[in-house]
């Protein structure tokens, strides 16, 4: 009888054990150096997934080649779901139109896992700028023969294209000043060398809270809970400038559908569980897990949207 009870107890323990338990380690590869918004999201996700997947999850920073180094590293990895690519929208849906000889193909090389977070773009200026909102900044630009210098993190980046959309919508007289990354661009906005910058809320919220930048508008359908007093561009009568720089997770192509489904469920649980969700929200990133099929549609739609703008403007990546 005792043996029977012991056997039943052991069976219960095995049944209660997570079916997704894995062995070995798992990598989340990103195209950015440590310390930025994508790195922050990756590390929160890695912490949560390490518990959900019962395995060590590390962040592998591989910047360079406009996302190509990280993308290739994942594309060439074993399709077992243990090497994943967390990328911002740019490398996934803008690069195909920006570069003629891209070293990776989103359709051929990757299996979508899930959308992770959405980041609204915010227009910021130096605090000394007299404009109280984007509409006033647009009006100022029309009084300047040489236009207002608006920085971006690079040619064809989300900040660049958001600026182009606002110029199209308002006929604002804006001068694009591309930088090699957001950090030097922000330094010059704060130093009053350039007038403004569109950027992800997670990368800018600390400067806004610290009084080093002034937020004029949100390029999204709704206001940010972190900046509740900052109107959307739509509220200011400026339409068609919605620019969401989402981050999503991709596995190598040919990763088994069952493993994709397992990863999707694990990420969904992390993003809906405290304290992970709260940490992301406090940074300005909005957790938005969904199905792999929804991510496929998002990539297709945004590739068409941004590709048309890039081609119409004859923008080429550097």
Would you mind describing this structure in some detail?
- With 318 residues, this protein is α/β, with parallel strands linked by helices.
- It has 12 helices and 11 strands.
- The strands form 2 sheets. A 6-stranded mixed sheet has the order 2-1-3-10-4-11, sandwiched between helices. A 5-stranded mixed sheet has the order 7-6-8-5-9.
Total individual domains: 2
Q: Helix proportion of residues, in percent?
A: 40-55%
CATH topology name of the largest domain: D-Maltodextrin-Binding Protein, domain 2
CATH-defined superfamily of the largest domain:
Bordetella uptake gene, domain 1
Sheet with most strands: strand arrangement: 2-1-3-10-4-11
What is the CA-CA span between the terminal residues? 75 Å
The CATH architecture of the largest domain can be named as: 3-Layer(aba) Sandwich
Principal-axis shape equals globular
This entry's quaternary arrangement is single chain
- Biggest sheet details: 6 strands, mixed
- Radius of gyration (CA) equals 22 Å
Strand content: 15-25%
